[in-house]
Structure formats: C-alpha cells, structure tokens
Amino acid sequence: MLTEKHIAIASLILAIVGTGLLFLFNQAIEPNELEIGTLGKSNVGERIKVGAKIEWALEKDNYILLTLDDGSKIKAIKFGPSPEERQIAKPGSFVAVVGKVQLYKNELEIIAEEIKRW
C-alpha cells in the first residue's frame, strides 16, 4: 500500500530525473558555436551559431541578407525577421546568428533562425 511517504519519495525522484533529462536535452539542442573560417561542406545541414560583425546588410519586406565577418566571411539570410532583428541587423553591429548551414550557388550560407546582439 502506498503511503504519503512513498508518494513523496517517488515525486522527488521523478523531479530529479526530469530536471536531469531537461538539462541533457538542452545540451543536445544547443548549436555548436563555430568560427566562419572553420565551416565547410561537411557542415551543410548542421545547426550552428556564429558570432561576427555585420559587414553588409540588405533589408527587404520579408527577409534580411547579411554578410558576416569574423576574419572570414559568409552570407546569412533571415526570412520573416522580427522588428528587433531588423533593428539589430545593421552594418557594423556585432551579432550572434543561429541557423543551418546550406549551399546556395555552390557557396556556403547560413539560413538564420535568430539574430541577436553579441
């Protein structure tokens, strides 16, 4: 027969195990932070994070196109940018970009999921 003590112990164990699993899932979900110069075709499809200075930016109604520079350069595109991302995405700004590496016209680029101040 289950007593209050058994239920409390089971609840505590489940809370500890659940917290541990959330921590592990978060570590697995967090993208690798890489330098632009280290990116290659082997990274295509990989979700990454880069920190760089915006060298050039083009803002359109439904996207922003950026050239990022951390000593090496790569283009990044963000579809459906938020007002905050539009405000941040200006030449000279230092940003962290999270997204997937893709090939476009045989060149690497990042399809950005988010753009934040760095």
Short description:
The protein has 118 residues and is of the alpha/beta class.
Kindly list the characteristics that best describe this protein.
118 residues, alpha/beta, OB fold (Dihydrolipoamide Acetyltransferase, E2P), 2 domains, five-stranded mixed β-barrel, 2 helices, 6 strands, 43% strand
Number of helices: 2
Order of helices and strands: HEEEEHEE
**Rg, Å, rounded:** 20 Å
Determine the CATH superfamily of the largest domain.
Nucleic acid-binding proteins
Strand content: 35-45%
**Main CATH class of the largest domain:** Mainly Beta
Helical content stands at 25-40%
Shape: elongated
Largest sheet, strands/sense/barrel: 5 strands, mixed, barrel
Low-confidence stretches: none
The CATH architecture of the largest domain comes to Beta Barrel
Please tell me about this protein's structure.
This protein is an alpha/beta fold. The chain folds into 2 domains: 1-30; 32-117, OB fold (Dihydrolipoamide Acetyltransferase, E2P). The protein has helices at residues 4-29, 83-88; strands at residues 32-33, 47-59, 63-69, 73-79, 94-104, 107-117. A 5-stranded mixed β-barrel has the order 2-3-4-6-5. The longest helix has 26 residues, at 4-29. The radius of gyration is 20 Å and the shape is elongated. The mean pLDDT is 93.
